[in-house]
């Protein structure tokens, strides 16, 4: 059975996410009985590295889960799971085995580039609508496909130093970056002066700090040039790293400070 949900489920998932701030949050309680209680939750894999496959746009993770459910009223309606990060990736219902054990195996689909840390959350509901406590764990999804690519670096050929007392001159640097596993797989983009390779400076694609538009693959950094900067030729090196630790080729740009 395959699951692929790009958006949070409407009512039930919203209620569960609202409860997720407390691992032992209990559902509504009245005199009719007590809610179910979950324990001994286990799942696998805790970490999944997507193999390189240029022909497959998605990553399929075989997720197995098992949990013990105790309920004094013996009226468990369903034991459900949700996998979510920023959005809901999958949801479903575990099957009853024996001795209060519920389990299931599901092929969970992660769209290409949607690597990161995801929450696996399980809860139960009885026939009276009372919710159990939550049990959860974290699953790390990463990729080891091809490395990121810097296709272009945009930098001015020349920048003039301000005179003493003048405002700083602004040097805008832009690196255009993509990744075969998806743009979300890019972990960082940095540059450095080749004469001082030990000091690396991060670039931004978040629509802040001088970046014009978030998540467009154009990583930007604004550098201030002061009157005290030494004139001359500066060679800058640019490199991107993905979440699997793969490095792009280094691109260089030369800027003359007058």
Topology:
Blueprint: E1 2-3, H1 12-19, E2 37-44, E3 47-50, E4 58-70, E5 76-84, E6 88-93, E7 95-96, E8 101-111, E9 116-126, E10 135-143, E11 149-154, E12 158-159, E13 169-178, E14 186-193, E15 201-202, E16 218-225, E17 232-242, E18 251-257
Parallel strand pairs: 1-8, 3-10, 12-18
Antiparallel strand pairs: 2-4, 4-8, 5-6, 5-9, 7-8, 9-10, 11-13, 13-16, 14-15, 14-17, 17-18
Key features?
single chain, 258 residues, mainly beta, Immunoglobulin-like, five-stranded mixed β-sheet, 1 helix, elongated, disordered N terminus
The number of helical elements comes to 1
Distance between the termini: 64 Å
Report the sheet-strand fraction: over 45%
Q: Tell me the number of strands.
A: 18
> Low-confidence segments, ≥5 residues, pLDDT <50?
1-31
What proportion of the residues is helical, as a percent range? under 10%
Biggest beta-sheet profile:
5 strands, mixed
Structural class: mainly beta
CATH architecture of the largest domain: Sandwich
CATH-derived topology of the largest domain: Immunoglobulin-like
Please name the fourth-level CATH homologous superfamily of the largest domain: Immunoglobulins
Q: Radius of gyration from the CA trace?
A: 25 Å
Question: What is the string of SSEs from the N terminus onward?
Answer: EHEEEEEEEEEEEEEEEEE
Mean pLDDT: 85
User: What's the CATH class label of the largest domain?
Assistant: Mainly Beta
Q: What shape does the CA trace take?
A: elongated
Count of separate structural domains: 2
């Amino acid at each position: 059975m395959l699951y692929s949900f790009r958006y949070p489920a409407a009512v039930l998932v919203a209620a569960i996410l609202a409860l997720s701030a407390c691992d032992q949050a209990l559902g509504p309680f009245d005199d009719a009985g007590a809610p179910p209680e979950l324990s001994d939750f286990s799942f696998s894999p805790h970490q999944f590295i997507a193999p390189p496959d240029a022909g497959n746009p998605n990553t399929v993770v075989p997720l197995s889960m098992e949990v013990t459910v105790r309920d004094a009223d013996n009226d468990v309606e369903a034991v459900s799971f949700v996998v979510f990060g920023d959005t809901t990736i999958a949801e479903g219902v575990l099957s009853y085995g024996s001795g209060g054990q519920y389990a299931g195996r599901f092929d969970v689909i992660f769209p290409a580039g949607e690597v990161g840390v995801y929450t696996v959350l399980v809860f139960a509901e009885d026939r009276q609508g009372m919710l159990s406590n939550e049990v959860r764990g974290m699953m790390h999804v990463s990729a080891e496909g091809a490395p990121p690519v810097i296709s272009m670096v945009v930098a001015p050929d020349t920048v003039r130093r301000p005179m003493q007392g003048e405002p700083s001159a602004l040097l805008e640097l832009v690196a255009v970056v993509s990744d075969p596993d998806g743009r979300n797989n890019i972990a960082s983009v940095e540059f450095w002066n080749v004469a001082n390779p030990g000091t690396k400076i991060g670039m931004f694609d978040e629509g802040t700090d001088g970046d014009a538009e978030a998540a467009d693959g154009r990583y930007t950094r604004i550098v201030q040039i002061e009157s005290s900067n030494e004139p001359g030729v500066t060679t800058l090196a640019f490199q991107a790293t993905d979440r699997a630790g793969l490095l792009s080729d280094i691109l260089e740009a030369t800027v003359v400070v007058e």
